[in-house]
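Page 47, continued from p. 46.
Same chain as before, 301 aa.
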Amino acid sequence: MKENFKKKLIKFHDKNYKKLLILPLFLILFCFGYLFFFYSQTNEFFYKDISLQGGTSVTINGEINSADLQSAISGKLENVNIREISDLMTQKSIAIIVETSSIGCNESEVNQIKSILEDFLGYELTSENSSFECTGSTLSENFYQQLLIALLIAFFLMAVVVFIQFKSIVPSLAVIFSAFADIIMSLVLVDILEIKVSSAGIVALVMLIGYSVDTDILLTNKVLKRGGDSLNKRIFNSFSTGITMTITSLFAVIVADLIIGQFSSILHQIFLIMAIGLSFDILNTWLTNVSIIKWYALKKK
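Result:
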């Protein structure tokens, strides 16, 4: 039964592996179109939180209804985002974080934000029950640019290593394209979900490059550098190992997010973007990259 299914799958793939490139090609074109539209509307490629665009973060101790607070202050402060902090053991809300792009770096601005929050809370905010943190727009912009440079350097170094490894342009470009597609598709889905990306989100994209390249290099090595078995058998062997690696990583990220990601917005965003990226990596490695490598191997033969 298993062997019959495998033979049918091989026969289907031999006949349609070039056609299977249509779906990822359509997706990547859609992603470029969406990013172009998004940039024309926002002048950015993704929504940025206060760590990347500047703003004020207020932590207020105590159990506060976040929905009511959001409704009360949204029209008074710019781009309000509210997150609850819960106790790890009891799951009880112990504090709330209010983020706004309103810059409150001088005393009069801080007092204005405090006054708006105090009107809702009904009591005075002091150093004992709250804390204020302000990030200037210039500092945030410099930090954002440095993170993007780090992302570009990581991608460039990955490309150099891949070219050194395979010494051939087609398989190298296939690996690089797959990693690039993972990042672009993840970014588009993050935009569609209206997630505000923080510095942690940029770090997750850098990490995603490494995860993506692992399976692509595994596939390319097994198919092009190992002889003996037939081409399809080498592809199936690499798929068996690679999909196990990816699903294991994906499962670990999802479980980690469910257990500890709910108590840290930084970890939650890292885990969420990693989960999105790993899901797209399954598509880009085992639909896009495998078709390109198979096409190249047959042409080379």
